[in-house]
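INFO  loader      accepted 1 record
INFO  loader      residues=253
INFO  predictor   begin
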Amino acid sequence: MADLPARTGLGTSSAFTVGLLLGLYALHDRMRDKHALARDAIYVEQDLLEETVGAQDQVSAAYGGFNRIDFHADGSIEVKRVLTASSRVAELEQHLALYFTGFARTASEIAQEQVRLTPQRKQELGTMLQLVTEAEAIVASPSRSLDEFGRLLHDGWQIKRSLTQKISNANIDEIYEAGRSAGALGGKLLGAGGGGFMLFFVSPERRQALRERLKKLLCVPISFSSRGSHVVVYEPDEVYDKSLVSERDAVYA
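INFO  predictor   done
INFO  writer      dumping tokens
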């Protein structure tokens, strides 16, 4: 069950895979640390299902929290919690607004084109990596204005949309420019591109103006989660006295 639709760039496929694997491990009375769980989910999606997908969604779903995730050339993955005050993270949260563009798509189809063109986009990808380091520094430093983060989002989106022609389109560009004209400093289309959700960075004072400008689109409230995927209820069979369970109840159980 999900609160939001699939194929919209929110990492729902990877969240499902991570949750399913964690549940299966629990059924077998086995624990799995977050790093191993993320690795398992990546293996299922990339190797077993042969989907053209990245690895960031699986790691984010397994770990939770506000992290910097580095994927190294040797295949190793490094997850580092961004060290900043909770009030700073809450302030960033208040500057983010999430809107559904109304378009769904299959991420792997968009990603295939990006993977094909990646060797020709090394300069752009290198610049996007530098933006990550700068964005982390902004969030971690309470003396810097978060508006800098919003402007970096804009710069990053301009680079990302140039990677392939399938990432954006006229409708998405229109939504983004409408958001900017209403006061958003920046934003980006989440996921592989082609549709889904648009994330805007907008000051709390301009949030209502943005809502009026994009009144035809669904606005979804969001907040950061620190837990990641976890088992909500774990009740091993041995805690029950099965002799007290009737045959009918046993069937429904």
